[in-house]
Structures are given as C-alpha cells and as structure tokens.
Amino acid sequence: MSYRFLLFEIKDRIGIVTLNRPEKLNCLDQTAWKELRKVLKDGDENPDVDVQIITGAGRAFCVGDDISVLTQVRDLRICKDLMLDCIYGLADTIIHLQKPLIAAVNGYAYGGGCELVLLSDLAVSSEKATFAQPEGRIGAWPMIFATFGPALLGLKVANEITMLCEPISAEKALAIGLINRVVPHEDVMPSAIQIAHQLMKSSPVSLRIIKETSTKILGERLYDFWISQLRSFKEVSRAEDFIEGATSFMEKRPPRFKGY
Q: Which helix (H) or strand (E) holds 66?
C-alpha cells in the first residue's frame, strides 16, 4: 500500500516506518496522523513483521503538528478530527501495539515527535538530536506528554519539559529516561536495527506479555487522556491565545498572549 507522507518497508522481519515529509521537517497534518496510525496497526498485524522502527527522513525525526492546521482550529470539525480522531487515535494505537516499537531519532523531535518517542517502547537517538515540547510558547498544550509524561518520567521532569518549553539535548534525554541510547549520527538506524534483532531473540509471547504489563499504566491513563481531549475540544474554539500563538508562529513574530 502506498502512503502520502510515509514510507514503509520490511527488512529481515523488521517493519521500518519513515516519516517522509522532509521539506516540512516531517510535521503531521490530519492525513499524516491517520497514515501513521494505520501503518503501525497494519505492521502490528502483519505475520511477516516482528518489530517496528519509526524514523524520519532528512534532518528531523518529527516536529509535531503542522502549524498551518492549528490556525484553523476555530473550525470545530477540523478541531475534532485533529484532537479526537488523529492524536487520541494514534496514542491509543501505539499503547496497544502487541509488537515492540523502536524510535530511531535522527534529528529534531519536537511536539508530537517528542511524544512519539515517549510512547515508543525503546528509543535510540543521534547525538545531534534535540527534544522539546514547545506547545506552551504558541498557546497550545502537549496533550500526550502532559498526560503520560509524569507517569513515565516523573512529575518534575515532565513539568520542566512541558512548562519551560526549552529544547534538551540527546544526552539529557538519555539521563531522564526519555531515550535508551545516544549514538553517532550515522549509527542511528544501524543501532535501531541491532536492537530489533536483539528483541527478536526473545519469545514473541514473552514480548507481548511484557508490553501488556509495562504499558498497563498508560492504558489506565487513556481515560484521563480522553477527558482532557474533550475539555480541550470544548475550550479551543474560544482560546484566543491558541489562535494568536499559531498565527504569530506562521507570521514569524512574538506572540501577544492575552491570557484567555
């Protein structure tokens, strides 16, 4: 099957998903969110795939949402599609994958890209990669990271990333447990493939049970995530700061937040 913004190939029973929008740093609009959800689900159900790897084309892993879409959130249909169908749907899919998912972080992992790394089972990063949740700077909110980050990384760490909005290095990402390994840039994919082969030495049944156990806390938080999505959906149509933040980003100027 062909995808508009993704590449998918199987090598040695490893499903490799490449976000393929390098001219926009692999940002995600509704089509890309839905394609990613489908390709991961299809790979999980494919008997020829034992492990999946997600990476990005070009100099970025993924910088999250396409900002041009965020400027349209006053349209409630677009808002519902993005928040409930796309973002929640992908988080739910990743949490319930039965096969391991490895993030091979080749560059910028911002916003939704950083959240993909957070939800992945394992992550290997280029020494050049940086990670950030900059949503607060544009009047938005990092729904996935704010919901699952405290449980996975600790409250203070998650708050530092989501509230201060400053990029962190690969070394710091390793220190706080967001990723597992930092390697030279050219070794990102070889290292991810090496990890995949190591995983395939274990019983698929064991891996599935380990995943079910380790992601139980995430599944328990899905309800909270759903509620936060509904609350955000109700508020976004009247959130002036959200619109101002997205618009100012597109116009390359400092935002003029009003606090509502």
A: none
Mean pLDDT value across the chain: 89
Average pLDDT over residues 104-115: 97
How far apart (Å, rounded) are the C-alpha atoms in residues 22 and 55? 11
Half-sphere exposure of 59 toward its Cβ, with a 13 Å CA cutoff? 3
* Residue 118 identity: L
pLDDT digit string (tens) for 192-236?
Answer: 999 999 999 999 999 999 999 988 878 877 777 777 766 665 565
Question: Any alpha helices (H) in 14-154, and if so which ranges?
Answer: 30-45, 67-70, 76-80, 89-95, 112-119, 143-153
Show the tokens assigned to 214: 């380790």
Query: Is 23 a catalytic site residue?
Result: no
Q: Catalogue all structural domains in the chain, each as residue range(s) with its CATH number.
A: 6-204 (3.90.226.10)
Q: How many CB atoms lie within 10 A of CB 48?
A: 9
Q: What are phi and psi of 231, to 5 degrees?
A: -65, -45
Distance from C-alpha of 170 to C-alpha of 92, rounded to nearest angstrom: 26
240 in catalytic set:
no
Tokens of 88: 């929640």
User: Tokens at residue 144, please?
Assistant: 């996935």
How do 51-56 and 6-11 pair as beta strands? unpaired
Give the CA distances from residue 161 to residues 26, 169, 194, in Å, rounded to whole numbers and listed in that order: 21, 12, 30
Of the listed 35, 45, 115, 251, which one is catalytic?
115
Q: Which of 23, 135, 220, 240 is catalytic?
A: 135
- Strand, helix or coil at 218? helix
Contacts for 63 with CB less than 8 Å, ≥ 6 apart: 24, 25, 26, 27, 108, 109, 110, 111, 112, 113
